[in-house]
Amino acid sequence: MQAMGVETKPPNVQVMDHSNPLARLNGVHIEQVRRIAEACLGCEMANEYMIYELSPTPGHKSGPELVHVKEVGSSFCNRQCCGPCRHLTAEMYTVHDNRPIGTYRKGQGLAWCVGCCAATATLVTNVGKGGEQHYDVGNPHGCQCPGCTPLGFTIGDFDFRGDCSCCGHTPCGQYVFNVTNKNTGAEDGSVVKLRQGCADIFYKINKYSLTFPADATEEQKVQLIAAAIHSDFNYFEQKKNNN
Questions:
Q1: InterPro entries of this UniProt entry (predicted)?
Q2: Does the N-terminal or the C-terminal CB of the chain have fewer CB atoms within 10 Å?
Q3: Please, which residues have CB within 8 angstroms of residue 142's CB and are 6 or more apart in sequence?
Q4: Helix-strand-coil split of the chain, %, nearest 5
Q5: d(CA 243, CA 212)
Q6: Contact predicate 106/87, CB 8 Å
Q7: What's the whole-model pTM score?
Q8: Torsion-angle region of 147 (φ positive above 0: left; ψ -120 to 50: alpha; else: beta)
Q9: Cβ atoms within 10 Å, residue 200
Q10: pLDDT digits (tens, 9 = 90+) for 190-232
Q11: What is the mean pLDDT of residues 81-103?
Q12: What is the pLDDT of residue 82?
């Protein structure tokens, strides 16, 4: 018999820790918010991303939205004129209680450089248990051109590198950044830009599958989410107009 006032739960049922939604996850599924007005009118709006638990089925999500990422700090005119080169800030926060977990900041320019196009300065702020931690986003892989050379960058404890692939930058192509822990040298985890379906092509949005390294902390998982956002803004973002 159940004692009065004692709450019980069914066995073998995991309870979500809303204050720490990333703690138990092995990976996340990231997808941009669809906006039909933006797709039809061809104007650049502030990007937003919904983050879910990664399903065991490759390329799929599981459960409700856990974390939301929202672009702020870029004006309407700046988005129309500069497109992916614009400066911006993207704030990351939990959906359940709007708790900030990190911020991604990008200066004017692109993460890749070719010809006279200079790489931009970028910064990730991690709001963890030990307070705020700041990480410069590095580009140790030299001159990069999507589709022509391998792509790569670093954020915090991790190095991200993908192969040279023209197909990876087409709507039907998939592109993979392999993750290396700079402290241990272990290659574990990945950031994958998924193939676009018909609806994704119409809305000009991207989706990402992010697999965390096995021993990643919550703060490091925020770094990895910022890496997916970084790759989207700097390598794969598509302008909504024809300019």
A1: Scramblase
A2: N
A3: none
A4: 20, 35, 45
A5: 37
A6: yes
A7: 0.85
A8: left
A9: 17
A10: 999 999 988 888 888 899 999 999 989 999 999 999 999 999 9
A11: 91
A12: 85
